[in-house]
Specification:
- A hairpin with a 2-residue loop joins strand 2 (48-49) and strand 3.
- The chain is α/β, with parallel strands linked by helices.
- It is 36% helix and 21% strand.
- Helix 4 (102-110) packs antiparallel against helix 5 and helix 8 runs antiparallel to helix 11 (342-352).
- The chain has three domains: 6-138, Roll (Sulfate adenylyltransferase); 141-292, HUPs (Rossmann fold, 3-Layer(aba) Sandwich); 297-390, no CATH class.
- The chain has 13 helices and 19 strands.
- The strands form six sheets. Strands 12-11-10-13-16 form a five-stranded parallel β-sheet, with helices on both faces.
- The chain has helices spanning 14-24, 37-46, 65-73, 102-110, 118-126, 141-157, 174-185, 205-219, 241-251, 322-330, 342-352, 358-363, 379-390; strands at residues 9-11, 48-49, 52-53, 60-62, 79-84, 87-93, 96-99, 127-133, 136-138, 162-167, 189-196, 225-231, 256-260, 269-271, 274-276, 288-292, 295-298, 303-306, 317-319.
Length: 396
């Protein structure tokens, strides 16, 4: 791609690079390029691009004084090199440089300009005052790998109905499991797009992947489920999330998108014809969106139920609040098995608190019942043995 010089480099981050790569691989089709000023204005006004749904303009407007100087001096036909972390990752042939209204851009993506919104603040920090349009080349091998994996699985299974689920699994709880099972019952193949955000915390992608793989490998037909990474870039963080998820799932080859009623951006409301959502406004997304009811645990039914089918009041219901479960895990508390499968909790806590029970294990290695064989007690197994004792309900 040539050797970049300091005065014709655009410095962007991996999040922007991945978003550009999605377009190059057709994941955000109908968008197939960086929009020029006229195309961007028209898309923002109509919510459509080339006659198809797209909620806001697709532009590249990198922030920083260095980038702004490069953009202000660039001329049509110039080649600018795309640099990420000091490495040349692509190039763009300048078509047009044009100013943007940063606040209007933020409003289009997030539906607000309130800086207390984490997405607003992060995007403002990285958004410049000038956008560039033009043909570009970029490295997008990872997204191509995901596409190939989905295509291969589709060919192997001869699947006709392919459902996408966008899943954070932070943490994977019982309601997630029920949702995945119900989706699988209605599908030939389920693609679990495990979200990979760019802000990393202790619940890393690899840790969450480990929990999801455990569930699939042990409790689902593995030939009907595929886990792939989904780069959760800034454009998916706003109130248009459901529309963009649908567009991406469709372009990955899925026929259906399965979402819960609390999915970001779904906007449930009621009228005299029943429950509606924002997706009812779009009848040409070219993908079916299946909205699932909320699942709760009912202490009268003694099982996981839909709020639409349970006859008991909400005071009998335990909701699957991910934040509450996270608070338990963050405090080092083993969540009740009715909330999180005990094996999943053991995986999470043994990774969050490594070597926490080293001394206890050494001292009480023979405390728990065994099969009569000498076994090494791992941290993960220690949690499972503790959970067994918690679940012992009879002394007779």
């Amino acid at each position: 791609m040539g050797s970049p010089k300091r005065n014709n480099e655009l410095h962007i981050d991996n999040e922007a690079l991945t978003t550009l790569a999605m377009v190059k691989e057709g994941i955000l089709f109908p968008v197939d390029k960086l929009m020029n000023a006229q195309e961007a204005k028209q898309t923002d006004l109509t919510g459509r691009y080339k006659g198809e749904i797209f909620p806001f303009s697709f532009i590249l407007a990198p922030g920083g004084l260095r980038n702004e100087k490069v953009l202000q001096s660039a001329k049509p036909g110039d080649i600018l090199y795309i640099v990420v972390d000091g490495e040349n990752r692509g190039e763009i042939i300048v078509e047009e440089i044009f100013p943007i209204d940063r606040n209007e851009r933020i409003q289009r993506i997030f539906g607000t300009t309130d800086s207390s919104h984490p997405g607003v603040k992060d995007t403002l920090d990285r958004l410049g005052h000038y956008a560039i349009s033009g043909e570009y080349k970029i490295d997008c091998a990872e997204i191509r790998t995901v596409k190939n994996a989905i295509n291969t699985m589709q060919e192997l299974t001869k699947a006709k109905t392919i459902s996408a689920i966008m899943l954070t699994a932070k943490p994977l709880h019982r309601a997630h499991e029920r949702f995945i099972r119900i989706t699988l019952e209605k599908s030939d193949l389920v693609i679990l797009f495990l979200l990979r955000p760019y802000k990393v915390d202790q619940y890393s992608y690899d840790l969450r992947l480990k929990t999801v793989k455990y569930f699939i490998d042990n409790f689902l037909p593995t030939n009907k489920v595929l886990i792939v990474p989904f780069e959760n870039t800034y454009i998916f963080a706003g109130f248009n999330n459901i529309i963009l998820d649908a567009i991406a799932a469709r372009n990955f080859g899925c026929t259906n998108l399965a979402v819960g009623q609390n999915h970001a951006g779904i906007g449930l409301y009621y009228d005299n014809t029943g429950t509606k959502s924002i997706v009812d406004q779009y009848n040409d997304l070219k993908i079916k969106i299946d909205v699932s009811n909320e699942f709760v645990y009912c202490n009268e039914c003694k099982t996981l139920v839909s709020t639409k089918t349970c006859p008991h009041g909400s005071h009998h219901h335990i909701t699957y609040d991910a934040q509450f479960i996270l608070e338990l895990l963050n405090a080092g508390v083993l969540p009740p098995a009715v909330l999180v499968r005990k094996e999943i909790s053991a995986i999470l806590l043994s990774n969050l608190y490594p070597k926490r029970f080293d001394k206890l294990i050494q001292k009480f290695n023979n405390f728990f019942p065994s099969a009569g064989l000498l076994e090494d007690m791992s941290e993960e197994k220690f949690y499972l043995e503790i959970m067994k004792l918690h679940q012992t309900v009879s002394l007779t």
